[in-house]
Every structure is written in structure tokens, then in C-alpha cells.
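Reminder: ligand-aware prediction takes two inputs, not one.
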Amino acid sequence: MNAQRVIEDLRELAARTSTHDGAQRLAWGPVWRDARDWFKGRVAEIGLRVETDSAGNNWVTLRGASPKTVIIGSHLDSVPNGGWLDGALGVMAALEALRMHAGAAPPVTLKLVDWADEEGARFGRSLLGSAAAAGSLKVDEVRGLKDRQGTTLVEALAENGVALDRMTDAHLELKTIDARAYLELHIEQGPVLESMQKSTGVVLGTFGVERNMLRFTGQAAHSGSTPIPMRRDAFLAAAQTSLECRAIARRRSKPGAGVVCTVGVVNVEPKIVTAVPGLCEISLDQRALDPDVLAAMLRDAQAAAAQAARDNNVAVEWLPLWRIEPRPFHPALIDLCEQAVREETGDAPRLPSGPLHDAAEMVPHMPVVMMFAYSSNGLSHCKEEDTPLARLETTIRAYLRLVQKTVAHVAAAP
Ligand SMILES: [Zn+2]
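Here is what comes back for the chain with zinc ion:
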């Protein structure tokens, strides 16, 4: 088990593919291709080779005694001015797991995957490669996407030998694998492990999201001549709803099962200092790991908005923006992950993932678990992204233990 070698690889990759503003491995571009070429060389050193599926995902297969397969990996692409660990940590640690097992054929097959375009930073569609492999990508929804320079996704894919209309063939390719587990190590990208002073966390699943716009409609009126009881102030109804939604999230949070909600957009009209707002729109983004809790949060918010509308004599309308089901990880793999983290660190904090990850796309298809590494200052998607060295080494060792445990677990299963 050589955690130091993983860190050396990460440093070398960062040196090759970063400027002083951070990592520049934007999916489908030249720096990303260079990162993948470099990775191909690393893989060749252990006598293995990289194969690319129809969606541009890169796979490395270490054949074992059984076709039962444990998939390990993450993504090499980054946001512009990104960090050195987001995605790359999971790929480099998976490579070390292959090195560990490459000497003698392992009891089960190991497949490393480097998903294409996890970030969606250029065309706005995250989890592109893993969604194609999962069969959840609707190609017609992404066909019209363009980057800021006006290059279409279709053109960018073609530059990389990927045809949009063939991308979902990656799902047929995934289905030929006897996949028994998917393991992903990732930096937390938030402040929770740091606040607990823990190096490593066991991830329970990715949050479900309910995202809506709420439009409150009252009546614009003169701010001097309209007595307060006679107003129909749309902003106050929106503000009351926002505060009540925070109270709902606090009520629904339990230790180890936190939930969040955010009002990130506020539009008010007529936006004049001397007018009572006649119209106010707010966005409401609610997230939870438990589907029943998420559904209850939404119901509570609908009741709160209706009450705030009545209190302020305005109307309220809900406009759905986006939703996704929670993706809970697999109980048996969560237990193995907990054992691995506890053996390495003496403790195994469990936490949900607020951000989505490629792992979420694999949940309907196979048992999945993720492990998180501590994020310094909770920062990610920026050059300051970091994990203190000793904590990083500990986490990589815990992940390599998890791979070993999972291989043994899958080998013993029927
Ligand atoms: Zn990532």
C-alpha cells in the first residue's frame, strides 16, 4: 500500500495540467487530453491498457480469477482554475489499487474508470459520461449545447472521437460487465469533516433535490400613501416563506442526517425605493438524503408559502425547475467502508454528499459507496482546494483497504 506514490502522481499531474490559477483539465479540451495521455503511460507501466467506451469514458481492466467485477474510479476533468484533488484523487488512488493487485491475478476482476466530463463546466451538463453509461442521458436534451466560444457539444465530442448519437451505447457496454460494486474516493468539497477534525468520512449517499421558483403576486403601490394593513406586499410574503423554509430544514435535520435549503435568487418588482413590491420571485432549493424527509420538506414549504401569501394578501404560484431522487448507497458497502476508515483512523464519521457525483449514476445499476477526504477550509473548485498531507495519506490508505475488503467480499459472494 503506497499512499505516497499516489500523492506523487497527483503532484505530477497537477504540475503538467495547471497554471498558477489552478487545474485546467476542462473536459474535451487539449489539457484534459494531455492528462489522459499521461495517465495512459502510467497504466502501461503496470502492463495494462486504456480502452475508451462509446461515451469517451476510459477503462482499465485487471482481469481476475472471476468475471465478477469491482469498479473503482472517478474523473480526470476539472473546472477551469480547479483544484488538484477533485476527481484526480479518486483516479490516482484507483490506479494504486490496480498496482497493488497487478502482481498476481486478484480473485475478482478490477476495472478502473475515468469518467468523461463529470464537471459539465464547458457545456453545462454534469455527469455526461457516467449518465451515458448509466443509460440516463437523453441525447436530444444536450444536442443543442454550446460553449462560450460557440463550439457545439457535438463538435467537441467529435474532436475526441465520440459521436453523440452513439454515446448511450456505453450503457450496453456497461451491462456486459458483471459489476458487483462501485467505489469512489473524492474530496468532500465542504466543511463537515474539517469541523469534526476527521480525515476521512463514509458517504451515505447523494442528496435528492427539489428545486422550484415561487412567484408571489400582490399589488405595487405608493410607499408613502398606502397604510401597512392595506398593502399586498409580495416581497414580505417571499421573505416570510424563506425564513419559514429555514425553520423547516432545522426541524427536519437529525444528527447524521442533516438537510439543507437555500433561497439563492430573489427578483422583486417594480424595484423602486418608493414602491411596495407587487411581484417577488424566489428560488427554493431543498435537499435531503431520505426521500420521505425531502417530500415532507416540500409539503411543509408549500403550506408555509400558502400561509405567507394569505398573511400578506397575495397569490403564490410554484414553477418546478429541477428535481432528482436521493441516491442512497449500499448498506453492505457502507459497512465495509466504515470498517476500512475505522481501522485506519480509529473513527468513521458518516455523512451525506450535498454535491452529485458519478457514483450517483451507478446507484440504480450496482452496489455503490463513496469515501470522502477532508477539505481544507471546505474549499473546492478553486486553486486553494487541499487536504493536509497526513490526512490525505491516511485517507488513501483507508480507500485502498476498502478496495481490498470489497474484493474479498465480492469474491466470497455467490
Ligand atoms: Zn469531482
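DSSP finds 13 helices and 18 strands in the chain. The mean pLDDT is 96. We will return to this case in the review session.
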